[in-house]
Design goal:
The chain is of the alpha+beta class. The chain has a domain of 91 residues: PH-domain like (Roll), CATH 2.30.29. Helix content is 50%, strand content 20%. The chain has a four-stranded mixed beta sheet, covered by helices on one side. β1 and β2 form a beta hairpin. It is rod-shaped and about 100 Å long. The N and C termini lie far apart (79 Å). One of its GO terms (cellular component) is exocyst. InterPro entries: Sec3-PIP2_bind, V_SNARE_CC. Keywords: Coiled coil. One of its GO terms (molecular function) is phosphatidylinositol-4,5-bisphosphate binding.
């Protein structure tokens, strides 16, 4: 997770999902600065296993799929480049496509930006509709009050007659 504190602080959190559960449990967490090495284990084989070496710990990981591992590596590499000024971790035994471009990152960022823009537009449109509905409700309320007053006067005069 990345916070918006200055300077930015990034951490790596390992979670586990137990069989039959929809929630995740936090297992361990490290600061990004503690990461020393990312080991993809075998660059010639698509596998979900990989190792992370931290300052004082070695941790074995298994992604849900080899594709998710690749995406995680790309995001991790990009995050390290962006937030670490020195002591960047070494990426070894990783497929070249991981280090090569940020196409997944850019498409993910574009998707998020697009979703935010659509949500913002939908909220604005909804706000406008609610504003018009409130105006119409006020008009109807005033009309109903005038009708009730007129009906009361008519009834009053009928009772007098």
């Amino acid at each position: 997770s990345v916070t918006n504190k200055k300077p930015a602080q990034a951490s790596i959190t390992k979670v586990k999902q137990f069989e039959g559960s929809t929630s995740f449990v936090r297992r361990t967490q490290w600061m990004l600065e503690q990461l020393r090495q990312v080991n993809g284990i075998d660059p010639n084989r698509d596998s979900p296993e990989f190792d992370l070496l931290f300052e004082n710990a070695f941790d074995q990981w298994v992604a849900s799929t080899a594709s998710e591992k690749c995406t995680f590596f790309q995001v991790l590499h990009h995050t390290c480049q962006r937030y670490l000024t020195d002591k960047k971790p070494e990426f070894i035994n990783c497929q070249s496509k991981i280090m090569g471009g940020n196409s997944i990152l850019h498409s993910a960022a574009d998707s998020v930006t697009s979703a935010v823009q659509k949500a913002s537009q939908a909220l604005n449109e909804r706000g406008e509709r609610l504003g018009r509905a409130e105006e119409k409700t006020e008009e109807l309320k005033n009309s109903a009050q005038q009708f009730a007053e007129t009906a009361h006067k008519v009834r009053f005069w009928q009772d007098k007659a």
